Amino acid sequence: MHIPTHRNCDGSNCAVIFIHGFMGSPNQFTELADAVYDIGCTYKTVLLPGHGGGIKEFVQFGVEDWQGHLQDEINEMKGYRNIFLIGHSMGGLLALNASLVEENHISGVVLLQTPLKVYWFNPRAFFFRLRLLLFPKDHGIRSAYRKAKSITISKLFFYPLFLKSVIQFYKLVRQTKKRLSEVFVPVCMFYSKQDETTSYKSADMFYNGLQHTQRNLFSLDKSWHAFYADEERAFITNKILAFIQQLRTD
Question: In degrees rounded to 5, what are phi and psi of residue 108?
């Protein structure tokens, strides 16, 4: 099941909102969400419109729906002094755009494998995707991808509809790229050199584009787009917790 979660930390002045990516799932954030709760943060993991079901429902929604839903989730957290947004892949694009709304008072944004450039026909990326298909069903990497995907495509004639959603995704990429210089909230970024979806060039594009804010970029060597090696998962968690602790105010 792909369902949003909300766990309130009594007496906390800090809230963290987790935003999944294109066709992604709130299930991706289970361990990280528990970790931010343990340092005293309320959290939400959102389920974006059209996700959690089939492709027929998915293609009915687009950028305005996804961004609007995130805004609704932020509005519900307006009572917290500190609000952090953590987005995986497309979720990071939505997070950055939400940080531009002055009334949201976002304290910081975390980007996990967020793309400004995507691998479609790169031979090396194709090889990684092929490896993924050849892994046994119980393999750790394949299990991680199954957990991270919330959209099912049961009938072949729905595949052409998918192009509509891809166009919406690229619309969001273009919008975000144009507004990077307007971002002033601190940003913490993680990119893997083994990512088969998000080009590693995105890391430099974000770092150079986010020229008016504090930003930290961390490189990963073993993780994929939706799978994190154990030691790198621990590294990411520790860096994110430190990022929150550094920026949160009493």
Answer: -175, 155
Q: What is the pTM (predicted TM-score) of this model? A: 0.94
Ramachandran region of residue 215, left (φ > 0), alpha (ψ -120 to 50) or beta?
A: beta
Q: Which of 200, 203, 198, 176 is nearest to 188 (CA)?
A: 203
- Exposure class string for 167-176: b at 16+ Cβ within 10 A, else e: ebbeebbeeb
Give 2-6's long-range contacts (Cβ < 8 A, gap of 24+): 2/26, 2/27, 2/47, 2/51, 2/52, 2/150, 3/47, 3/52, 4/44, 4/45, 4/46, 4/47, 5/33, 5/43, 5/44, 5/45, 6/42, 6/43, 6/44, 6/45
pLDDT tens for the 250 residues of the chain, in order: 899 999 999 999 999 999 999 999 999 999 999 999 999 999 999 999 999 988 888 999 999 999 999 999 999 999 999 999 999 999 999 999 999 999 999 999 999 999 999 987 777 777 777 777 777 777 878 888 888 898 876 554 566 778 889 999 999 999 999 999 999 999 999 999 999 999 999 999 999 999 999 999 999 999 999 999 999 999 999 999 999 999 999 7
Classify domain 5-242 at the CATH topology level.
Rossmann fold (3.40.50)
Q: Report which DSSP code applies to 20.
A: -
Of residues 14, 152, 170, 157, the one with CA closest to residue 83: 14
Ranges assigned E (strand) in 144-237: 187-192, 215-220
State the Cα–Cα distance between residues 17 and 83, nearest whole angstrom. Answer: 8
| Long-range contacts from 205-208, C-beta under 8 angstroms, 24+ separation | 205/116, 205/117, 205/177, 206/111, 206/114, 206/116, 206/180
